[in-house]
Amino acid sequence: MTALDDVVTDDHPGSAERDAWTCAFDTEEGGAWGLHRHDQHQLVWTAAGSARAVAGGRSWVLPPSRALFVPGGVPHDVVLRPPAALHCLYVWPHACPLPWTRPTVVAVSGLLRELLLALGQTGGEGPVAAPTLALVLHEVAGAAVADDGVVLPEDPRAAAVATRLLADPADDTPLADWAARLRVGESTLRRAFVTGTGLTWTEWRSRARLQAALALLERGLPVTSVAARVGYASVHGFGTAFRRRYGTSPGAWRS
């Protein structure tokens, strides 16, 4: 894990002269800029494809139906799987009435989607007028979703395993094999997950897999295919775990 003191603050040219602006990225952008922070709040959203956002020591998978509000100063990174249409809204804290101090998942309504698309239609960076900003923030304020994401372990060895599994949730390598590769005891690696995330290795892997399933379900893939692509050998087991985590079946969530 990167030490917080080493996280660079990214300052956009001309940012001091405007309360808010948007940036629409090229569809072939892969992201993965590394942990960085902004003095401004940021709303991360993909109009197509999906993003994996890391913020405040947690990870979220964001299909187009979800965005992530990242408070100013919070270290974060965004990884995309091209083609993905990433849109980011930046707002200075003095122009944002939202009280959120932690990364917060937001459900993207039809209106919010159209507003963000309109703001990004010219491509690149563009200003946001005060009335439009007020409407966007009003939509965001009422759309918070109770999703605390996947906690990332602080131990660098456990973090290396976590990063690999977030990139490929179907990887079924046993923990003993990971431990051997990293030249650490299996029990030590197992404890690192519990200590760093509050979850056992099995619980953590299941949560990471279920997060990854959201974007695949939203793309319309059959539940059987989604289950296999995120590492579940059984559709029944996938459905049971999904209902336990999200309170509904995979098919109902997609609907």
UniProtKB/TrEMBL annotation:
DNA-binding is among the record's keywords: yes
SUPFAM superfamilies referenced in this protein's UniProt entry, alphabetically: Homeodomain-like, RmlC-like cupins
Gene3D superfamilies the UniProt entry points to: Homeodomain-like, Jelly Rolls
Pfam families, sorted: AraC_binding (PF02311), HTH_18 (PF12833)
Tagged with keyword Transcription: yes
Domain HTH araC/xylS-type, first and last residues per copy: 159-255
Alphabetic keyword roster: DNA-binding, Transcription, Transcription regulation
InterPro entries from the UniProt entry: AraC-bd, Homeodomain-like_sf, HTH_AraC, HTH_AraC-typ_CS, RmlC-like_jellyroll, RmlC_Cupin_sf, Tscrpt_reg_AraC-type_HTH
Protein name: Helix-turn-helix transcriptional regulator
